[in-house]
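Changelog note: in this version the structure field was regenerated for every chain. One regenerated record is shown below for reference.
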Amino acid sequence: MDLPGVASNNARMSNPPLLRAERLSRRFGAHRAVSAFDLVLARGDVLGLLGLNGAGKTTALQMLAGVLAPDEGRVEIKGEDLARAPRAAKRHLGYLPQTPPLFEDAEVEEFLHFCAELHEVPTAHRVMAVARALARCGLQDVRRRMLRALSGGYRQRVGIAQAIVHEPAVVILDEPTTGLDPAQRMEMRALIQSLRAEHAVLLSSHLLSEVETLCTRAVILHGGRIVHEEALDARQSWVELSLGAPPELARVAEMAGTDAVEQIGPDRFAFPLPSDLAVLGRLLTHASRHWQARDFTLQSSRLEHVFTSLVRDVPGEHG
């Protein structure tokens, strides 16, 4: 499937890439969990990796974080090759897995000092780094609490604090709001959005609404492959057209006045809503007369269409 806007989105990046992944693939036995995964992140990006359970999101994030070695492909973090210079690359990386890596018998502040040391924050800067992480994550009031005594929301905050205590360029968060109540989820979303000013952020989720709320860009992963990418801060409505006598794709593109036309089924086409509605009117008139137009709908974004189509096609994912 073509990915509308991917090339133009990357070309518009004014900042140098902080994370670059090229053709990442990983198998587990005969099962290919991730295939030909490409990604570029710059400062200010909050990219949502969206997919159903089992789509390959966690495997992709583990390869990007250096937890799992890819069978093929490479990852570069702020210019450092993750395979060739893992220690140098990981200085620029913060990672929160699905289950926060917490020492239950440590105090919050004590634990963050330990994490700062692991991340090689210089001793002279360590107190300031921990204080800043506590403040950014709203943890000052619980800094003397034992980790085992914290609520789920605070545990996630500590998880993010350990990921940013060394002020990395790239922050990777795997399902950061899973298991939180609505109030905790809102607080966590606000915290994640605040990271955008100083970091490139990549997070995974299976919740469309969460990605649309939090992210500037979204990637949909399905069966281990990227099937769609979209810039969420520049969304536009898309037209979907069903035809009884569908023509060649190029003919629809000519009538729609855009090269961003996709054939999304044997008789269905999708393209951005034209800014000049007269163009749409002429297209619909022509489709009615010559292509046996059956149906015409508007979608708020291609992201919504692609994701809901996947949900419809996979049993057990409708709730």
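Spot check on this record: The chain has a mean pLDDT of 87. The first strand starts at residue 17 and ends at 28.
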